[in-house]
Amino acid sequence: MYIHKNGIIHRDISANNIMLDVYKGAQVIDFGLSTYERNPTKFCGTLSFLCPEILQRKPYDSYCDWWAFAIVLFQALVGTTPLQIYVKEAFNIDNVYLLPRYYWIRVAVAAVNVPVSYPATLSDDAKHFINDLLQKDPYRRPLEADILKHKYFNEVP
Predict the structure, then answer these.
(1) What is the sign of the dihedral through the CA atoms of 38, 41, 46 and 49?
(2) What pTM was computed for the model?
(3) What is residue 112's predicted lDDT score, i.e. its pLDDT?
(4) Distance CA 37, CA 113 (A)
């Protein structure tokens, strides 16, 4: 929220770009793909964490970062990303990057249209929160002001 308040879109939030610190908690790092541009259309980021707008090369805004945050949270709670689950189920391949390069984006676009499957062990609040952030229509995703008010955070220290 801090970077968005300062007009920055990170565009590459992924598990590799979050540093855990004992004193400050989770910190977003690596601002190499960040922009101040409003409604950019540049295709960039880590494939498993890209929102539909970027995959479809449509203009996007800071809500692409919230989509990626939902994928990071899913990965932290489940151990893999929804795209990796889709590739495993659809192609019986453990890693999307083992597919021929020209398939990567097509597979990612197709995966966005498949409902996310959750393990039974995941709390309902976590499922609802992730689903809220993974709305294909960016205007249906929660407003930043409402994100920290989500029921999921009632149990998060």
Answers:
(1) positive
(2) 0.89
(3) 80
(4) 28
